[in-house]
Design a protein that fits this description.
Elements: H1 19-24, H2 45-51, H3 56-59, H4 63-77, E1 82-83, H5 90-95, E2 99-102, E3 106-109, H6 116-120, H7 131-144, E4 149-154, H8 156-165, H9 173-181, H10 183-206, E5 211-215, H11 224-230, H12 232-240, E6 249-252, H13 260-263, E7 270-272, H14 279-286, E8 292-296, H15 305-319, E9 325-329, H16 339-351
Parallel strand pairs: 1-4, 4-5, 5-6, 6-7, 7-8, 8-9
Antiparallel strand pairs: 2-3
This protein binds coproporphyrinogen I.
Coproporphyrinogen I (1CP) binds at residues 38-42, 51, 56, 83, 85-88, 101, 103, 106-107, 152, 168, 215, 217, 254, 332.
Length: 355
């Protein structure tokens, strides 16, 4: 898709199933689409039951399990999109990098990438190793019928942050030191990771994913000037590699209030907004022509229903300033969230006027 400008010649698809793609293409329909980042796993008892005895990275490479886990929140909540059950480190694993996802911690890299030799030794990501991914996506697309499947990848910066730090980090100090201190090596590393993300996303689109989201979860760790110089060119490269596909793209990061205008220039039509910025303000920072996704604070879902309802209505009201709005949280579902509250939020969003 090359433009998000609304056109008057195409009919507006008002069916609920079409609502997400309509919003993604920068148009308003009668229904406001809603899904939740990290909607699979975490808060669902059926997820915990199904995952018993299978480690995370094995689960991600098992097409039957991926299909089932991806479907669980769709069947339960009636959300307007499925997001593939996977993880941002899966391409690293498939490329042959020694990564583990440690329960309660997150991704841990056995041998962090910190030297010239480490960067040069990074393997290529061979799409032939991603057969399981294509299989899972094709099965899901058949099972989902008209509900769109969102494919995703980690963005080069966020992947680099894990590779360099060796695991989750609060300040990303090693990553920033590498970036500021060794810009030429940084370019090699981010170029390799942009290629991983492109390959991973293309396989999902080729198998039928109808939207792609690039998660630059930790980009908010950077000031705007550093983001523009050291990160934006590589995310732009990822999106540009997908320009020939007619697949709407979402670009999301956490704590990116100061970066929204730049992130909107990376090539994605839709900009995901975290919960720190009022959505109407985010829309004006992003600039015209971009649908938005977001941005209810996930912690609000732990409050009483009247508080949640008011907050949902506020986000929906503020989203009216954008050409299209996909309702979502401002980051992932918190594990302690009551799944019944998520279903209630879906019903509420669907009951509100979308125009
Ligand atoms: O809806 C879903 O939960 C489905 C799929 C999904 C997605 C979209 C998972 C499963 N991970 C992700 C993306 C992901 N993974 C991101 C980007 C989104 C975000 O910002 O939340 C990031 C940063 C990760 C890395 C990651 N993987 C973390 C975060 C650690 C940190 O640095 O703070 C964690 C805890 C994981 C493990 C993981 N990924 C997914 C699940 C269900 C789990 C838990 C592990 C398990 O159940 O064993």
């Amino acid at each position: 898709m090359s433009t998000t400008e609304p056109t008057t010649t195409e009919p507006i698809n008002d069916s609920l199933d079409g609502a997400l793609l309509t919003a993604a293409r920068g148009r308003r329909s009668d229904h406001l689409p809603v899904w939740f980042m990290r909607q699979a796993g975490r808060s669902l008892p059926e997820y915990r039951a199904r995952r018993q005895g299978t480690v995370m990275l094995q689960a991600c490479q098992d097409p039957d399990l991926v299909t089932e886990l991806t479907m669980q929140p769709v069947s339960r909540h009636g959300v307007d999109a499925a997001i593939l059950f996977s993880d941002i480190v899966v391409p690293l694993v498939v490329a042959g990098i020694d990564v583990d996802i440690v329960p309660g911690v997150g991704p841990v890299i056995e041998a962090p990438v910190r030297s010239l030799e480490d960067v040069r030794a990074l393997p290529q990501l061979d799409p032939a190793g991603l057969d399981f991914l294509g299989t899972a996506v094709r099965r899901l697309v058949a099972e989902l019928d008209s509900t769109p499947l969102i494919g995703f990848s980690g963005a080069p910066f966020t992947l680099a942050a894990y590779l360099i730090e060796g695991g989750p980090s609060k300040d990303h100090a090693l990553t920033k030191a590498f970036m500021y201190g060794r810009p030429e090596l940084w370019d090699e590393l981010l170029s390799a990771l942009a290629e991983y993300a492109s390959v991973f996303l293309r396989v999902q689109a080729a198998a039928g994913a109808s939207v792609l989201q690039l998660f630059d979860s930790w980009a908010g760790a950077l000031p705007a000037a550093a983001y523009e110089r050291y990160v934006l060119p590589y995310s732009r490269r990822v999106f540009a590699s997908l320009d020939d596909l007619d697949v709407p793209r979402i670009h999301f990061g956490v704590g990116t209030g100061e970066l929204l205008g730049l992130m909107a220039q990376a090539g994605a039509e839709i900009v995901g907004v975290d919960w720190r910025v009022p959505l109407a303000q985010a829309v004006s920072r992003i600039g015209p022509g971009h649908p938005v996704q977001g941005n209810l604070d996930p912690a609000i879902l732990l409050a009483d229903w009247d508080v949640i309802e008011a907050a949902v209505r506020e986000v929906v009201g503020q989203g009216r300033d954008a050409p299209g709005h996909i309702f979502n949280l401002g980051h992932g579902v918190l594990p302690q969230t009551d799944p019944e509250v998520l279903t209630r939020v879906v019903d509420l969003v669907h009951s509100l006027p979308a125009r």
